[in-house]
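Task: complex structure prediction.
Instruction: return structure tokens for all chains below.
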Amino acid sequence: MRYAMVIDTLKCVGCSDCVVACQTENDVPIGYCRDWITETVNGAYPNIELELKSERCNHCENAPCVRCCPTGASHIVEGGIVLVTGDECIGCGACIESCPYDARYQHPDGYVDKCTFCHHRLEKGQLPACVSVCPTKCMYFGDLDNPNSEVSRLLKNRKWKTLAPEAGTKPQVYYLI
Amino acid sequence: MVTSRRKFIKISALGLGGLAATSTAYKLFASNPILDAAIKENIAKKFVRSATYCEVCFWKCAAWAYTDTNGDIKKIIGNETDPHCYGRLCPRGTGGVGMYNDDDRLKTPLIRTTINGEETFRKASWDEALDLIASKFKHIKNTYGAESFALLKHGSPGKHLEHLFKAYGSDTIAEPAYAQCRGAREAGFALTYGSWVGSPEPTDIRDTKCLVLIGSHIGENMHNSQVQEMSDAIDNGATIITVDPRFSTAASKSQHWLAIKPATDIALMLAWMNVLIEEELYDKDYVKKYTTGFDELKDHVLNFTPEWAYGITTIKPEEIRKTARKMAHASPSVIIHPGRHVSWYGDDTQRARAMAILNGLLGSWGRRGGFYFKESIKVPKFPHPDYPHPKWDWTDIGEKFPLAQMGITTEVIKCAIPSEDNKYPVKAMMVAGTNITKSIPEKKLLEEAMDNLEFMVVLDTMPMDVTGYADVVLPECTYLERYDGIRSATNREPSIAVRVPAVQPKYDSKPGWWVAKQIGERIGLGEYFKYDDYKEVIEWQLNKMGTSLEEMNKIGVKHFPRKSGPLYLDEDKNYEFPTESGKIELYSKELKNLGFDPLPVYTKHPEPPQGFYRLNYGRAPMHTFSRTANNPNLNDLKSENNLWVNPKVARIIGLKTGQSVWLRNQDKITSSFSIKVRVTERIRWDSVYMVHGFGHNNKKLTRAFGKGINDTQMISKVAIDPIMGGTGMRGNFVEILTEDPHKTIEI
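Output:
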């Protein structure tokens, strides 16, 4: 089992619904977020390119946040999902510094928080909240170990990229371009 | 400065004893550690779900509100069977919970009073506020006639109050959704096809092969099902052509972006018609069978070549030809999208006509991948006595605009200004669910009108700017806390959705239907409100429609079979369009008879003088009008607007991204607040752009106050559409001020 998220930048309109859906699903306090939108503009008028995409924890196979965690609060579970156990986290912030994607934040209650791929929903057979709500249906979620899964097929048939591949983290959020 | 009687009151600005004490009490509802602890346990908790439909915008997506065991709304999820959202709400719908949780909400009725010579609001009981309103209703009717009490409204609460006003004898009713928004398109398409485009637009985007967006920015406007279908169209490999002076989100998804010079769309469309006809690319069978006036159209566009349009639009002739051929290639699965907010330059009905004619040439109306024949189901009217006939109404007020099919807000507002020519004096006004100070241009005129009113009452959930002008402010509960009318969707197939309260109303807020009934009963109109709870009305209607509230609580949305015939034209049968001729009227005799151009003509519009830039405005996907700027969830996503400036302009003026600037328009109107610059290649050098709905004046909107610029404040010049009375708002020019023009900031 290797969970992965695939996001089609050709369809994303950057509406931020994924951000609000995550906030309400996971009780992320207002002012914080586990996912966010980036906008990149290239070129000069009128030859311009715009890329909008939804970003979050990349649930890296080689996760620096897990390696640097002094208490083991950051850990990897079945399917490759990187989680933080709030009770074990001392809020030292080492993981926040180590993440090349700036995907972690310190919750007002002290512990470090981030995207869980909606682990609690997956257990119930539901998709992550962001994927389930996206009005452009630009987000896909599934198992890369299954060659017939939608995510596997998309990565096989479409051009894609990952973020900061040079960091060597083996990120599991893929962007169709 | 002359002190106005109706001095704008920032609600509770004077901090009266009663109010100050109240606001302290309300802080109990703000987030605190106890709540935070509760939040952590939430995931494990059980939810109860209630059927609703969203009221954050006009799309009205059906949804489920999830409430936890404490009775708090935790999340709102789209109803999977709803054709408006297909189970996926937009950010505003998902963030609708913030509308309920916003602790800046209006909490009690407020009455204008004078203390120590200063006007302020005092807290009032519902009985006191309603008695006062009822006395004004009686006074206006006895003194001037019921017609002199006007209603400006929007959305669900507006419908309940419309019933009250009609029962009272006033049909002096209007909403900004017409003359400030989509009215011109409805007039233009009605002239051509005999029917309105309507809402949601019957655009068959999911099956289209070519989608043409002219200044319409799907994706930034989150018209939910359209955004979803555009995404489907992208998956299906559809060609998207976007005409916009700004590189919109939609433009970035397009194979062809025509970076048009603002205010020249009609020239481009005439050239497209020229190419389609000259190259014989139009749908000949369709044109022959279903349209009338083709020969006149052919003669008309003969000289409107792409070369002619190039000089006007700055779009290269080859690009015009190429895009026209793409449309023709996709025909009839092509959509020249009618747009939505189309009150731009005063010739907007004619621009809509040009779009309608193009669709006619391409044979897309009534065709798969073009426009489908929409259908809705009629919700039976809950019995009530007939409405009395007013001596005059909105049609008389708008009489000089022959094709106005709804009340024109700006004309109703002008009627509040006394003059000898004013045959229809408006003396009192109710404003419900619309923040007219941000939706109506020409602020000076609006303020003069409001100043002349004997009485003004505002119903809203939030202390919007408009509440500051009221004599009485009524706190409406949010859509999540009330029953409302049944939503009958106009779509591929008829369906209905219900709204039931997920929670009890917070604070001392009340539903719009309750307010209408309370006023009605106080002025002797009890016969029109024969129910204790609006639930009874819905139950009665649902039973008549063969369902029940019990069933609707379980399913939220119910579908009904089509009865009007097939979704698309049946090519083997004759089809009569609901026009005078029974055909699609490419050439409009109706316009000709009324003294207007029977075929669209390009008119040159004023251009910005040296040092000024055309002010364009639009939408951000996470906000609706000025309604959501203070919503904690949505404000968190975007708390202020920015001024988009082309790098060339930024170099000339010396602007940097993030720098605060002020604006001054052609009439020397200076923005109240500043706005942060965003230097971007996505905008032309002759225009600036901002998202509408920011720059709130009311300090009680603690998150939104003073954040960004209110574009409507800068719109002091309107170009009136002579056909339907729309107020064209894109002919305003601004200069960018880098120094604060306000010596002391007025708060």
